[in-house]
Hints:
Elements: H1 18-26, H2 40-82, H3 85-92, H4 100-104, H5 110-117, H6 120-128, H7 176-184, E1 194-196, H8 204-207, E2 217-220, H9 221-224, E3 244-248, E4 255-259, H10 261-273, E5 278-281, E6 300-301, H11 313-323, H12 331-340, H13 376-386, H14 396-401, H15 408-415
Parallel strand pairs: 2-4
Antiparallel strand pairs: 1-2, 3-4, 3-5, 5-6
Helix pairs in contact: 2-3
Amino acid sequence: MRMRQLGNGHSVMFFAPAEVDHHIRSLIPSGMAPGGCIRVLDILRWAIHETCEDIGHCLPYWAQQGLDHCKRSAAYEEYRSTGNSEVLRSAWLQPESQTLEEMYWNTPVANMSSEINSTPALCERIERLGCSTLFNVRMAEEQEREVNHEVEPEYSTGRKHPRPPRVQPAEHIIHADIREFVGTGKLPESSTHISPLLAPIYMAEVLDLATEWSPSLFATADFATTVHGSGGVSLTEYLRPVNWILSSGSGKDSIVVVISPYEANALLPAIRESNKVRLHIYTPRVTSSMRSFSDLTFYSIPNSLAISWSAPPHIRTLLNLFAGQLYFDCAEEYERVCVLLALSMAHPGATHMDRDGFVPPRHRTGRDSPFARSMIPILKKLIRLRGKGMDYSRTHLWQILNGKPLSDEALWDMLA
């Protein structure tokens, strides 16, 4: 319909991949392609050639259908005259199973050719189409077999425990404290619904004593509580991923609250109208080729409040650790994590360190850490739960949690 009056106000442009271009050129007779250009005639020649090839490929299947139709029509005429239903039965039913010789023996032509020769109409049509040989379509049938499907538990590297037991999910609730934060941008005093995000890994109590790494990263109870009867104060198999974040303020006065998807959806109208908070989209970087979302500038609502704002460095570090980010964005972040966890890489002159690379307070030579005991075991458990048992041994985080400094190649990749 659209190609009427082609050439008179209309034109057609053809696009084809390299493989099709090569096939079109291979069908052009020698000396008939001026300047190596492909003409419309050449494209039509290729289209007709492909159509003929497809007809030749599908011809055996069409012939088999024709044989079945002729056989059943003859059986039906005989049934009408004799009333013998066994004639219909033998014509309609086909052998369900085949012997190995029938399935795999190299006799693809004999059976069909003998049956087609007894059907003049099929022979005439096949001769008109110029087909000289046919293969047995039974050779192309997919063989099915019934098996007893058994569930086999996989105990791959890193997964040493079966799936967690089924539990009852917790009911969602939107507390007045988070509504007040959306309206004012300030946390209510003595809130029981908003608590430090790092409470489940027992980092909040020691971070209260720190000055540089003060707790300015929070989470709602609806985010932390995922199953019935859980208070969100310990690590479980049912950790909720970090994807929706509310923020207010700027610089060191920034307040970041991680919320659940349910809260993000319910509070979205109020967030759009508020000029005190921003809703950010976040996800941890779990592959080396993945872009980073840790600065919280990828997308925010309302966007006008976050044009010149980005998450402070200490917020990024704590957020990435809890969310399960496996790769560092830059060398500075790698250094901040080593200093925070009091690893040997941040204290090159230390005379004593634990087996996991943790340097006790009295042996530290560089910038101090708020931790008097190693956080490596609890972080390993956190990452294992985040990854659902997946192996992460080739990542940046695995190396430093096992007391190994990053290679020069990895540091150069960060700079690049």
